[in-house]
Design goal:
The structure holds two protein chains of two kinds. Chain A is 72% helix and 1% strand. Chain A is flat, with a radius of gyration of 28 Å. Chain A has a domain of 221 residues: MetI-like (MetI-like fold, Orthogonal Bundle), CATH 1.10.3720.10. Chain A is mainly α. In chain A, helix 5 crosses helix 6, helix 7 runs antiparallel to helix 8 and helix 9 runs antiparallel to helix 12. By secondary structure, chain B is an all-alpha fold. Chain B has a domain of 175 residues: Orthogonal Bundle (MetI-like fold), CATH 1.10.3720. In chain B, helix 5 packs across helix 6. Classes of the chains: A mainly alpha, B mainly alpha. Chains A and B meet through helix 1, helix 3, helix 4, helix 5 and helix 6 of A and helix 1, helix 3, helix 4, helix 5 and helix 6 of B.
Chain lengths: 336, 282
């Protein structure tokens, strides 16, 4: 039913669509259309360029703010493990050490574990169950890092102190890595939680890589009598090695800059110790803990310089991994 | 090639299959441990007071985190208003104008790099360009830092979603004489609507659990949120402060806030992923 209002500009009977424009209007509207489109293009281009500008801005502003510290300490900043706000003596070594060691622990645990999980869900169980496990593991990536911190400090650290650390100390005896009182917090706990946090990223990329291995390759290996493990090791892993390296890079980038989870459990000590049970600090945890308390300009500037070091490391890792994945994509000719 | 006895090979195979199954179970076990740990500790803190009352000083029982809940919502909303339009426009450039352009390749590269930049560094950056020059912490600074984190995510998902729209649709609209911007907003967007909304949802899920970028931008505050131009209460920094405090009551509140954040983020993520999967299957 059609309701015709008195003020309806279209009398009943004529199509109520857009009326055709009068002929003399065509050429000006064409010009306007071109103007509108080039403006549209410019606006979208400008918005897209905000991202590279932000990265440039990150470098410029952080370098600018860390200038006092760079001038005052020079290269010594990276090599010194001093951290004394009272005497205005700062060095990045203990933070860099803690960042690297906790990341190393995370990688050593997460990479093999992720590969095993990816292999299991792609090759060894029915696809439906595999997808279920895959999306459950991916949920680990969606949990905010502050939740990992809460859980790490109040649930996991006591567990480490009561069970894992005494056990490790017992079986390793006089090994310097597992000495000291089992307090639950420290580099080892931080590394384990980091491992858990990067696990879903590596697993997800690795299982995509495994799915890309051509079925014919695998089937010919099975046809020659290989066991599942032999196919996985000699065909799937070898075929996907490039992708797996890329996946590991992604995990590495995440682990280096992770803040909240590490801040809760690393113990916040600026001493370098070989034992993984004692408190330590990472660049990110130092920033999180001390940034708002830094009243003195040199202190603040030193903290920003720590941030600059972290930025350089993570962007380096990111660029390497992007280039690696790009090269790989070019080789296999498919999206990942 | 060296020949190994079949029994040995079969045994190794069993062992490795068992181990990889164990690894998968271990991953699921930790997921369950975290979820249960937070739910069991958080649920007892979630009383009506938690959602309606202001925080009490340490030692005084009761009180809630209504200011932090409102603060988090406002900061996230401001971040969405800033980051989403910019991100969608940038994504349009990549998808509609930037198929083979060098600029677009650079932007894509930069977006991936920015996504991998630690969020605490973004916090330091915003401190340097907003908090330090203005001389005070503010909710707006917090919103800007969340928008920076959100931006590359929105740009990339927008590009992906717009690319799923078949080119024939664009061509037919262009052939009718519609200008490019009209084609994009009225034809391509309509086709990609659910995908775009999902992208925004996932980006919001990602930033609403962020703590590090708010630590030195929005800071925190025990008071009611009057405006975003001063230190603004928010849930995640409150969790951090309360968890590190020695007061039992505050720690309990921190668990409640953790549960709230976790459930919100997980639900948004699950919903978003579901829609995306359905879209990709089509």
């Amino acid at each position: 039913m059609e309701i015709v209002f008195p003020s309806n500009p279209h009398p009943a009977g004529t199509p109520s669509g857009v009326p055709a424009p009068p002929l003399e209007n065509t050429s000006p509207s064409k010009v306007r259309r071109k103007d509108g489109d080039s403006l549209f293009r410019l606006v979208t281009l400008g918005s897209a360029l905000v991202i590279p500008l932000l990265i440039a801005g990150l470098f410029v502003s952080l370098t600018d703010m860390s200038m006092p510290s760079i001038r005052h300490f020079g290269l010594k900043f990276i090599l010194s493990s001093a951290w004394n706000p009272v005497k205005h003596d700062f060095g990045a070594l203990s933070s860099i050490y803690g960042t690297l060691i906790s990341t190393l622990i995370a990688m050593v645990i997460a990479v093999p574990l992720s590969l095993a999980i990816a292999l299991f869900q792609v090759e060894l169980i029915p696809p439906r169950l595999g997808r279920f496990i895959g999306s459950s593991i991916e949920l680990l990536a969606a949990i905010p890092s502050i939740i990992y911190g809460m859980w790490g400090l109040f649930v996991f650290a006591p567990f480490m102190a009561d069970h894992v650390q005494p056990f490790l100390a017992d079986i390793t005896g006089t090994l310097p890595f597992f000495q000291g009182p089992p307090m639950g917090i420290g580099l080892l706990t931080a590394g384990l939680i980091l491992a858990l946090m990067i696990l879903p990223f590596i697993t997800s990329v690795a299982s995509d890589v495994f799915r890309m291995v051509p079925v014919q390759l695998k089937e010919s290996a099975y046809g020659m009598g290989s066991t599942t493990f032999e196919v996985a090791r000699k065909v799937t892993l070898r075929y996907g090695i490039d992708g797996i390296v890329g996946a590991a890079f992604l995990g590495l980038g995440r682990a280096l800059g992770e803040t909240m989870a590490v801040t809760f459990v690393i113990g916040n000590s600026h001493k370098i110790s070989t034992s993984l049970f004692t408190g330590a600090n990472s660049i990110a945890s130092t920033l999180a803990n001390e940034f708002t308390e830094a009243s003195d300009p040199l202190y603040l500037s030193s903290l920003v310089e720590l941030g600059l070091i972290l930025l350089v490391i993570t962007i380096g890792v990111q660029i390497l991994s992007q280039l690696w994945l790009k090269r790989m994509r070019g080789k296999s000719g498919r999206g990942l | 090639m060296k020949r190994r006895p079949a029994t040995f090979r079969k045994l190794t195979n069993r062992l490795v299959v068992g181990l990889s199954g164990g690894a998968a179970l271990l991953g699921l076990f930790f997921l369950g441990w975290i979820l249960m740990g937070v739910i069991l500790r958080g649920i007892s803190a979630l009383s009506p007071d938690f959602f309606t009352k202001l925080p009490t000083p340490p030692g005084v029982p009761g009180g809630g985190l209504v200011n932090a809940i409102v603060g988090t919502l406002l900061i996230t909303l401001a971040a969405v208003l800033l980051g989403v339009p910019l991100g969608i426009l940038g994504g349009i450039y990549l998808s509609e104008f930037g198929e083979h352009s060098r600029v677009a390749a650079t932007v894509r590269f930069a977006a991936n790099v920015l996504m991998g930049t630690p969020s605490i560094i973004v916090g330091v950056f915003i401190y340097a360009i907003i908090v330090f020059p203005t001389g005070h912490f503010s909710g707006y600074a917090g919103a800007v830092s969340l928008a920076v984190i959100m931006l590359p995510v929105v740009v990339r998902t927008t590009e992906d979603m717009l690319r799923l729209v078949p080119n024939t649709l664009r061509e037919s609209a262009l052939a009718l004489g519609a200008p490019r911007w009209k084609v994009t907003f009225q034809v391509v967007f309509r086709a990609a609507k659910s995908g775009l909304l999902t992208g925004v949802l996932l980006a919001v899920a990602r930033v609403s659990g962020e703590t590090a970028p708010l630590l030195f931008t929005a800071l925190n505050s025990p008071y009611w949120v009057k405006s975003l131009s001063g230190p603004t209460a928010n849930l995640t920094v409150t969790i951090f402060n309360y968890a590190m405090s020695p007061y039992r009551d505050w720690q309990r509140q921190a668990w409640g806030a953790s549960l709230l954040i976790m459930v919100g983020v997980l639900l948004a993520t699950l919903l978003g992923r579901r829609v995306l999967k359905e879209k990709k299957r089509k």
